[in-house]
Design brief:
Elements lengths: L3 H18 L10 E9 L8 H14 L4 E4 L14 E8 L1 H15 L19 E5 L19 E7 L4 H10 L9
Helix pairs in contact: 1-4
Length: 181
């Protein structure tokens, strides 16, 4: 089962990138490897229900079971003990990754109030992290059942070697960047 974005990648994006960067083979064209959605929940040290709520919300948003991330060491100033749950994350690949990307670009991002586009700063290796301040932009979340607004980081991991290639790939996927390079 291929999604429309997956089909679009094979039929439209690959030939366009191949032409733009003069790749010798199709295998040189950058791909989207995975999307990692991460929520850091510092207040989980006081309230255990925060993790449970975040797990349910992230699972609803992505369609894949979220897992709790555990602390690696003790930090007494933050009341954190080793192996204490302090966040939740999901790694999406293949069909689920494309489905999530399509929902993000077509449904969730346009729901942000006063939306003017996302920053176009990549990490130097062709990967991009998008910070979202509220989880309620996703239609899967019922606003009435949200105890507290939580932000999240969405990281797009690509096989691109440079920021320019990664930017071109994500732009073709429809991510609404503020300023074109």
């Amino acid at each position: 089962m291929t999604t429309t974005l997956q089909k679009d990648y094979k039929e439209r994006i690959v030939p366009a990138l191949e032409k733009q960067f003069n790749y010798k083979t199709v295998m040189m064209v950058p791909k989207l490897k995975k999307i990692v959605i991460n929520q850091g929940l510092g207040e989980a040290t006081q309230d255990k229900k925060v993790i449970e709520t975040a797990l349910n919300e992230l699972t609803a948003i992505t369609g894949q079971k979220a897992v709790a991330t555990l602390s690696r060491k003790d930090i007494s100033n933050f009341k954190v003990r080793k192996k204490m749950p302090i966040g939740v994350m999901v790694t999406l690949r293949r069909e689920r990754m494309y489905e999530f990307l399509e929902r993000l670009v077509r449904v969730a991002l346009p729901r942000i109030r006063d939306f003017k586009g996302i920053n176009s700063k990549l990490d130097g290796r062709g990967n991009y992290t998008l910070g979202i301040t509220e989880q309620i932009i996703f239609p899967e979340i019922n606003i009435d059942n949200v105890p507290k607004l939580q932000g999240m980081n969405i990281t797009f991991v690509t096989t691109a070697n440079t920021d320019e290639e990664g930017f071109a790939l994500l732009k073709k996927f429809g991510l609404p960047f503020k300023h074109d390079k």
